[in-house]
C-alpha cells in the first residue's frame, strides 16, 4: 500500500479538512483534521479513523498507524 492509497481510503470514509500521510509501507503516520472530531475524545477519534480502514488492520495490510487528530478549531489554535 502507498501513502496515496491509504490517504484515499481514509478520506473516502471520513470528511477531512486536512489529511497528511507518510510512512514506509507498513508503519504509517497521519495528521488528520476533521469536523467529525469536534467534541470527541482521542479514543473515539481513533475509532473513527480505524473504521475507515475496515479489515485492513486485521489482515495487516495496514500494520501500524500512528495518528494526530484535530478538530478544525484545535488545528487553527495550535500555533
Automatic annotation (TrEMBL):
The lineage's top-level taxon is Bacteria
Q: Which positions, given as ranges, span the membrane?
A: none
What SUPFAM superfamilies does the entry give? Answer: BolA-like
Which Pfam families does the UniProt entry name for this protein? Answer: BolA
InterPro entries listed in its UniProt record: BolA, BolA-like_sf, BolA/IbaG_stress_morph_reg
The cross-references to Gene3D superfamilies, in alphabetical order and at most eight, read:
BolA-like (3.30.300.90)
| Family under the similarity heading | Belongs to the BolA/IbaG family.
Q: What is this protein called?
A: BolA family transcriptional regulator
Q: What is the lineage of its organism?
A: Bacteria, Pseudomonadati, Pseudomonadota, Betaproteobacteria, Burkholderiales
Amino acid at each position: 500500500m502507498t501513502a496515496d492509497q491509504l490517504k484515499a481510503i481514509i478520506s473516502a470514509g471520513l470528511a477531512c479538512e486536512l489529511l497528511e500521510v507518510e510512512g514506509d509501507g507498513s508503519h504509517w503516520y497521519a495528521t488528520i483534521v476533521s469536523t467529525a472530531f469536534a467534541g470527541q475524545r482521542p479514543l473515539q477519534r481513533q475509532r473513527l479513523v480505524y473504521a475507515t480502514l475496515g479489515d485492513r488492520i486485521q489482515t495487516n495490510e495496514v500494520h501500524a498507524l500512528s495518528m494526530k487528530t484535530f478538530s478544525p478549531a484545535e488545528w487553527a489554535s495550535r500555533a
